[in-house]
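USER:
Class, as today's exercise, take the chain set out below, and explain how the chain folds.
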Amino acid sequence: SLSLLIVSSMILAISGLSIQVVRESSSFSFVIAIDTSGSMKADDFYPDRATVAKQTAIDFVDEAPIGARIGIVSFSGSAYIEQEISEDKVEIKNSINNIKIEDLGGTDLYEATITSTNLLENEENKAIVLLSDGQINVGKIDDIIAYAQRRDITIHTIAIGTKEGGQTPYAISKLDEDSLKSISYNTGGNYFLAENEETLSKAFSDILKLTKENVTIKLSDYLILIAISL
């Protein structure tokens, strides 16, 4: 009967019933740092670099395993925390969608690295996923690399742009691959060019480095909800 189901659910909930399943996992916690400087309005990616960068970030969140811990930082002349470290994929993707691109302003990757590192302070294994065209005009590459190395931060870079460049509201902007390659190479990360979905899917797999692990899922909260619903 219905009463028996309710009582059974409550008893099992109180008992602390749990199950163990095997699922994909990543040992890293990530901050996705998205370039929001004016050069990201360039049209060499359709409809522009900024739109592709945001969609790439959302795709990364979608491909991350359940329970992955991800934060979001945007940066131009300054860096801003758009989302604290979270496991809530809906919340993370909403924060990405709400990011606005600056009309002008510099590209301060050094501050972006510091802000991202601070977000990851209490995480065990830390990595930054940087989406940018590499047009860094505030700070020095060497300082960024030295800072990341001192704090054992891995930086993966995903290039958004082309060598031929694209038109922005104020000038032609070209991809600076060398800066992005230098950052990833010297911090133990990987460099990728966002050419197509296949390339990006491979990039996500390499960055996430998914492994199989046993995960214990506590059923108490679910059983209580079932009992309440009944």
Summary: The longest strand covers residues 18-25. Strands lie at 18-25, 29-35, 70-75, 79-86, 126-132, 154-159, 166-167, 172-173, 191-193, 211-218. The first helix runs from residue 2 to 14. The radius of gyration is 21 Å.
